[in-house]
Design brief:
This protein is α/β, with parallel strands linked by helices and 424 residues long. It has 16 helices and 14 strands. Bound molecules: 4'-deoxy-4'-aminopyridoxal-5'-phosphate. GO terms for molecular function: transaminase activity.
């Protein structure tokens, strides 16, 4: 009752109209729900999210990943409540920020030091800047189709176009194809003298690394003095408690984390080897190598409190294993449904995520994911949302420790019906 009392008495269609009056496209960012079901969220609880019209959904968007222990986990709420009463922003050091930094250094294989930022895009931006400062080189190798945030150096050359980036930034990017070991090694060899870094998502969107791919990147970058950056924004604490580094046993020089480590508040991080991270140290002796970094909300105590509580829940004995078991049940059920329906598809996803690709071909080839029928996927989204399952199928199913077997079974049943409706 306390929740419903705080909800303004209005409807989704009225709110959507109001959003269109004051925000471009009536949207927060680039994500839009299928227009037939556009809805407005009022609150979340556990694995569920509720809209202002009172409809309940099993939530697989999970705030685009951060809500890995579900909405309003009691431990997260308690930690936030305690911190709110101590103040929400200091700018200077806090016990909360220091504790989160320690927790990240303990959990992340490559992390000797960390710096906290407010968003993932900032983290990849700083990782690239550190790599340039450390090597005295300008260029970054990025994989086509990878996403590392919205800034110019991350968007250019990725195959995801945006207007408004300076043409000159193009000159700082070199691209290769994810999982193409020989091709990538050739690009690295050709550009070795100019390359500051190779940045890679250990699992690129949903495509897992071909055996030997990450190892080959590690070997070639070490040999040429190039900084290897893992962007673990999605994979961190989600494919494995030690991220892609733990799952695949390859340790990068730097890594960027976000989403789960902020527990649903604005927090991300750059982590890595002390010698590289020291470029971010304003007290360093060699001032010429100093990489300026600042942000009003860096290490915000409220966000850090949510992050610590989230890691507490995830790292409880057996919690992550159970999350993976439930996620695997979803992957298996989706796969079986597609097989029975005779629809050619791949089910991808490691750890606590799942993705459906409507395409045949090599699942390690990123072209397979790129070829997945986008019309079918967005039609399915609408059918699923109608049936009380909130998912962004062109991206993936994100799962949380709050999702149970019944949720997953209901989801598989709804997927079967949605598939029939969308392909009829
Ligand atoms: N890197 C990856 C791999 C991501 O998935 C994202 C966000 N989806 C980012 C970077 C950017 O993070 P943010 O949206 O917090 O800026």
């Amino acid at each position: 009752s306390t929740i419903t009392e705080t909800i303004a008495p209005t409807t989704a269609s009225e709110l959507v109209r109001r959003a269109r009056r004051v925000m471009p496209g009536g949207l927060l960012g680039s994500y839009a729900m299928p227009s037939s079901v556009e809805t407005v969220i009022s609150h979340g609880q556990g694995a569920r999210i509720f809209d202002v019209d009172g409809k309940s959904y099993i939530d697989y968007i999970l705030g685009s990943g951060p809500m890995i222990v579900g909405h309003c986990h009691p431990k997260v709420v308690e930690a936030l409540d305690k911190q709110v009463r101590r103040g929400t922003q200091y700018y200077t050091l806090s016990d909360t920020a220091i504790e989160l930094a320690e927790r990240l250094v303990d959990a992340i294989p490559c992390a000797e030091h960390v710096k906290l930022t407010s968003s993932g895009a900032e983290a990849t931006f700083y990782a690239m800047r550190v790599a340039r400062a450390a090597t005295g080189r300008d260029k970054i190798l990025k994989f086509k189709g990878a996403y590392h945030g919205h800034h110019d150096y991350a968007m250019t050359g990725s195959g995801m176009s945006t207007a408004g980036t300076p043409a000159a930034v193009d000159q700082t990017l070199v691209t290769a194809t994810y999982n193409d070991i020989e091709g990538t090694l050739a690009v690295i060899a050709d550009n070795a003298a100019d390359l500051a870094a190779v940045i890679v998502e250990p699992v690129q969107r949903n495509t897992p690394p071909r055996p030997g791919f990450l190892e080959a990147l590690r070997e070639a970058t070490s040999r040429h003095g190039i900084v290897l950056i893992f962007d673990e924004m999605v994979t961190g604490f989600r494919v494995h408690l030690e991220g892609g580094q733990g799952l695949y046993g390859v340790t990068p020089d730097l890594a960027t984390y976000g989403k789960a480590i902020g527990g649903g508040l604005a927090l991300a991080a750059v982590a890595g080897r002390e010698s590289l991270m020291d470029h971010l140290n304003p007290r360093r002796n060699d001032k010429s190598g100093y990489v300026y970094m600042s942000g009003t909300l860096n290490g915000n105590p409220l966000a850090a409190a949510a992050g610590i509580a989230t890691l507490d829940v995830l790292q409880e004995s057996g919690a992550f294993e159970q999350l993976v078991t439930v996620s695997r049940r979803l992957r298996d059920g989706l796969g079986q449904t597609l097989t029975e329906a005779g629809v050619p598809a791949h089910i991808l996803g490691e750890g606590a995520m799942a993705a459906v690709l409507f395409a045949e071909g090599d699942p390690f080839d990123p072209a397979t994911a790129a070829a997945s029928d986008p019309t079918l996927r967005s039609r399915l989204d609408a059918e699923m949302i109608e049936r009380g399952i909130l998912v962004n199928l062109p991206a993936k199913f994100y799962l949380s420790t709050a999702h149970n077997e019944q949720d997953v079974d209901d989801t598989i049943a709804a997927f079967g019906e949605s598939l029939a409706a969308a392909t009829k």
